[in-house]
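Treating backbone geometry as a discrete language has practical consequences that deserve illustration. Part of our work consisted of pairing the sequence of a single chain with a tokenised description of its backbone. What the numbers capture is local backbone geometry rather than side-chain detail. For completeness, the protein is quoted in full, as a sequence line and a line of structure tokens:
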Amino acid sequence: MKVTVLTADERIVSLDVEPDELVENLKAILEVETQVPLAQQQILFNGKEIPNSSRLNASGVGDNDLLMLVSARAASSPATGAPTDLGLKPDGTAINPIALIRHIQGDPNIMRQLQENNRELAQAISNNNVDVLQNILRQQHQQKMLMQEQRQREIDLMNADPFDVEAQKRIEEAIQQKNVDENWEAALEYNPEAFARVIMLYVDMEVNGFPLKAFVDSGAQSTIISKTCAERCGLLRLMDKRYRGIAKGVGQSEIVGRIHVAPLKIGQNFYPCSFTVLDQPDLEFIFGLDMLRKHQCSIDLKDNVLRVGGGEHSVPFLQENQLPLHLHDDKRLEEPASSSGPSSSTPVNVHPPAPIHAPGGPVSAQESNKRARSPQVLYIFLILQYYYWLSREVVYELYLSYCFLELIDFLIHF
């Protein structure tokens, strides 16, 4: 059952104890938690002191009950036969650490409580390590003293001048930090898996017959392959450099081209796939949203598989021990986006393909204007063809002349 102990300095200690636990054992636990010597402790329930030889359930203490812990002088405290050498010094260390170790080792309930709430101290007691025990007790005492000093500073801030702007700011910061600490403690208790590292989704694929570990990212707009990976897969010769551009995200990366189609093997099946080629060596291959949609893929986190083709085929996501060494970098796995790489959730800005210039050099202004007037030329051609069918004899010679001029223009620019 759970009991809550309120100390004289208004501290609250929550403990899990057995219903038939001895009060003396409860005091031994509170001695470690509150630094109040066992001989000076008095446990009150409903205003009445509970003797050390009594059990909690026999004294009427039930689940979620509140107990009071008050400190009394050793001389005025009732003689209970509790050994005085189990107390603690002012610095938090044990007066007789060997006796304290033997006393705690002899009670399995106390050991169980320590293993749940204070594993380092329980391990030191189990190993009969006096030096480690004293160091842990001293460090915990110092931490509690620092917390008491901080709490006292907060009280002083509360009692400061209410019209002092700086004091109000410090009070606001203290309240905000307290809320953050409470939220952190609640997350540790109710949502501890939030502090675990999440392994990204990787599957085994083959690009043009070369195996690789593909990062499945539904937040990436396009399927991305690095220039070095494309060269290793023998696809760099198919790269269309007209699709140059800039991938903008948290940082920027240069898009050096695009591979329009190449065979991609997922499981035992082959699929056509297009790639955007980035000049980024630390990025190998990202299976993006464009190909996920094209091949009707779904990320099944329940079964830990990637389903392809509307669920007809599936491949398992790789475990952490199946990833290559360069993907085990903790910094890379913990940071979702690099400051120099493209963000997977940001669209990739790709410039349209550049026009193919003639091998003779740059295009002149006259030729550019002529190409810019191509819609007007086509419009005139359609009008002439229309009149040709209406009156072949009138427009026939004009039509032949126009065709002859177009043929000459084509031969010149061919």
